[in-house]
Amino acid sequence: MVRKFAVWVAIVVSTAIGALAPAQTAGLLEKNIYLSGPRYDGDLPPCEAGLRTIASRFSTREGRFWNSDLQILDFERVREIAYRPWAAGTIPRRFCTAVALVSDGKKHAVNYWIGEDTGMIGQTWGVEWCVVGLDRNWAYNPRCKMAMP
After folding, report:
1. Alpha helix locations (H) across 30-134?
2. Distance in angstroms (rounded) separating the CA atoms of residues 123 and 130
3. Which residues contact 113 (CB under 8 A, 6 or more apart)?
4. What CA–CA distance (Å, rounded) separates 144 from 83?
Protein backbone atom coordinates (compact mmCIF):
# COMPACT_ATOMS: atom_id res chain seq x y z
CA MET A 1 0.00 0.00 0.00
CA VAL A 2 2.79 2.40 0.97
CA ARG A 3 4.71 1.49 -2.17
CA LYS A 4 1.71 2.25 -4.43
CA PHE A 5 1.24 5.58 -2.71
CA ALA A 6 4.93 6.43 -3.17
CA VAL A 7 4.74 5.60 -6.89
CA TRP A 8 1.60 7.71 -7.24
CA VAL A 9 3.25 10.68 -5.48
CA ALA A 10 6.33 10.34 -7.72
CA ILE A 11 4.17 10.42 -10.84
CA VAL A 12 2.22 13.46 -9.69
CA VAL A 13 5.40 15.36 -8.70
CA SER A 14 7.20 14.57 -11.96
CA THR A 15 4.15 15.61 -13.98
CA ALA A 16 3.88 18.88 -12.07
CA ILE A 17 7.58 19.64 -12.56
CA GLY A 18 7.31 18.80 -16.27
CA ALA A 19 4.33 21.12 -16.64
CA LEU A 20 6.20 23.99 -15.00
CA ALA A 21 9.32 23.61 -17.16
CA PRO A 22 9.51 25.98 -20.14
CA ALA A 23 8.92 24.51 -23.60
CA GLN A 24 12.02 23.97 -25.70
CA THR A 25 12.49 23.81 -29.43
CA ALA A 26 13.58 20.64 -31.14
CA GLY A 27 17.27 19.87 -30.82
CA LEU A 28 19.65 19.33 -33.73
CA LEU A 29 19.18 15.55 -33.74
CA GLU A 30 15.40 15.83 -33.48
CA LYS A 31 15.25 18.21 -36.43
CA ASN A 32 17.43 16.04 -38.60
CA ILE A 33 16.08 12.61 -37.68
CA TYR A 34 12.72 12.55 -35.97
CA LEU A 35 10.97 15.64 -37.33
CA SER A 36 11.73 15.19 -40.99
CA GLY A 37 8.13 15.86 -42.04
CA PRO A 38 5.90 14.07 -44.49
CA ARG A 39 7.28 12.74 -47.73
CA TYR A 40 4.63 12.80 -50.42
CA ASP A 41 5.27 11.36 -53.84
CA GLY A 42 1.96 12.44 -55.44
CA ASP A 43 1.20 8.94 -56.70
CA LEU A 44 -2.60 8.92 -56.71
CA PRO A 45 -5.05 6.66 -58.55
CA PRO A 46 -7.34 8.09 -61.25
CA CYS A 47 -10.77 9.48 -60.41
CA GLU A 48 -12.51 6.19 -61.24
CA ALA A 49 -10.72 4.46 -58.36
CA GLY A 50 -12.83 6.19 -55.70
CA LEU A 51 -16.27 5.44 -57.14
CA ARG A 52 -16.77 2.04 -55.51
CA THR A 53 -15.87 3.50 -52.10
CA ILE A 54 -18.25 6.42 -52.58
CA ALA A 55 -21.16 4.16 -53.57
CA SER A 56 -20.57 1.83 -50.62
CA ARG A 57 -20.22 4.60 -48.05
CA PHE A 58 -23.21 6.49 -49.44
CA SER A 59 -25.44 3.44 -49.03
CA THR A 60 -24.15 2.81 -45.51
CA ARG A 61 -24.61 6.43 -44.45
CA GLU A 62 -28.13 6.70 -45.87
CA GLY A 63 -29.28 3.50 -44.20
CA ARG A 64 -27.56 3.96 -40.86
CA PHE A 65 -28.08 7.66 -40.19
CA TRP A 66 -31.00 8.79 -42.36
CA ASN A 67 -33.20 5.67 -42.41
CA SER A 68 -33.17 5.73 -46.20
CA ASP A 69 -32.68 2.97 -48.73
CA LEU A 70 -31.07 5.24 -51.34
CA GLN A 71 -28.13 3.77 -53.23
CA ILE A 72 -25.89 4.96 -56.02
CA LEU A 73 -26.53 2.68 -58.98
CA ASP A 74 -24.06 4.07 -61.50
CA PHE A 75 -21.71 6.95 -62.29
CA GLU A 76 -21.26 8.85 -65.52
CA ARG A 77 -19.20 11.81 -66.79
CA VAL A 78 -16.35 11.15 -64.34
CA ARG A 79 -13.64 13.76 -64.75
CA GLU A 80 -10.73 15.36 -62.94
CA ILE A 81 -11.08 19.00 -61.94
CA ALA A 82 -7.69 19.68 -60.34
CA TYR A 83 -4.55 17.92 -59.20
CA ARG A 84 -2.47 19.39 -56.34
CA PRO A 85 -4.04 22.86 -56.65
CA TRP A 86 -2.48 24.19 -53.45
CA ALA A 87 1.02 25.08 -52.29
CA ALA A 88 3.93 22.66 -52.43
CA GLY A 89 4.24 20.51 -49.32
CA THR A 90 0.50 20.12 -48.79
CA ILE A 91 -1.18 16.72 -49.00
CA PRO A 92 -1.48 15.75 -52.67
CA ARG A 93 -5.12 15.60 -53.72
CA ARG A 94 -6.91 14.82 -56.96
CA PHE A 95 -10.25 16.67 -57.17
CA CYS A 96 -12.92 15.03 -59.28
CA THR A 97 -16.57 15.29 -60.19
CA ALA A 98 -19.11 12.82 -61.55
CA VAL A 99 -22.82 12.41 -62.02
CA ALA A 100 -24.44 9.66 -59.94
CA LEU A 101 -27.65 7.86 -60.82
CA VAL A 102 -29.36 7.33 -57.46
CA SER A 103 -31.98 4.65 -56.80
CA ASP A 104 -34.72 7.31 -56.57
CA GLY A 105 -34.30 7.83 -60.33
CA LYS A 106 -32.61 11.23 -60.05
CA LYS A 107 -29.12 12.21 -61.12
CA HIS A 108 -26.95 14.09 -58.64
CA ALA A 109 -23.54 15.65 -59.04
CA VAL A 110 -20.85 14.12 -56.83
CA ASN A 111 -17.82 16.20 -55.84
CA TYR A 112 -14.93 14.30 -54.32
CA TRP A 113 -11.20 14.19 -53.79
CA ILE A 114 -8.67 11.43 -53.48
CA GLY A 115 -5.84 12.24 -51.08
CA GLU A 116 -2.48 10.61 -50.51
CA ASP A 117 -2.05 8.97 -47.10
CA THR A 118 -5.57 9.96 -46.01
CA GLY A 119 -6.97 6.42 -45.85
CA MET A 120 -7.07 4.08 -42.88
CA ILE A 121 -4.29 5.13 -40.46
CA GLY A 122 -2.50 6.96 -43.27
CA GLN A 123 -1.40 3.80 -45.06
CA THR A 124 -3.07 4.41 -48.41
CA TRP A 125 -5.11 6.94 -50.33
CA GLY A 126 -8.51 8.02 -49.03
CA VAL A 127 -11.66 9.53 -50.50
CA GLU A 128 -13.80 12.40 -49.24
CA TRP A 129 -17.04 12.99 -51.13
CA CYS A 130 -20.31 14.87 -51.25
CA VAL A 131 -23.50 14.15 -53.24
CA VAL A 132 -25.13 17.45 -54.20
CA GLY A 133 -28.66 17.63 -52.82
CA LEU A 134 -28.07 14.72 -50.42
CA ASP A 135 -25.54 16.31 -48.06
CA ARG A 136 -28.01 16.02 -45.22
CA ASN A 137 -25.59 16.92 -42.41
CA TRP A 138 -24.33 19.98 -44.34
CA ALA A 139 -20.72 18.88 -44.01
CA TYR A 140 -19.77 20.48 -47.34
CA ASN A 141 -22.34 23.28 -47.54
CA PRO A 142 -23.34 25.21 -49.62
CA ARG A 143 -24.30 22.57 -52.20
CA CYS A 144 -21.08 20.58 -51.75
CA LYS A 145 -18.91 23.55 -52.71
CA MET A 146 -16.50 22.85 -49.84
CA ALA A 147 -15.58 19.49 -51.36
CA MET A 148 -14.01 21.35 -54.30
CA PRO A 149 -10.57 23.03 -54.55
Report:
1. 51-65
2. 23
3. 93, 94, 95, 96, 127, 128, 129, 147, 149
4. 18
What per-residue confidence (pLDDT) applies to 23? 63
pLDDT of the residue at 32: 58
Q: Say if CB 101 and CB 83 are below 8 A apart.
A: no
- Bigger pLDDT: 138 vs 33: 138
Dihedral pair phi/psi, residue 68, rounded to 5°: -125, 150
* Rounded Cα distance, 97 and 136, in Å: 19
Contact 123, 136 (CB under 8 A): no
Task: Phi first, then psi: give them for residue 130, nearest 5 degrees.
Answer: -150, 130
Extents of the domains making up the chain: 2-34, 47-147
Peptide bond into 38 cis (omega under 30): no
pLDDT in tens, 84-143: 988 888 889 999 999 999 999 999 999 999 999 888 887 889 999 999 999 998 989 898
Q: Distance from first CA to last CA of the chain, Å, rounded?
A: 60
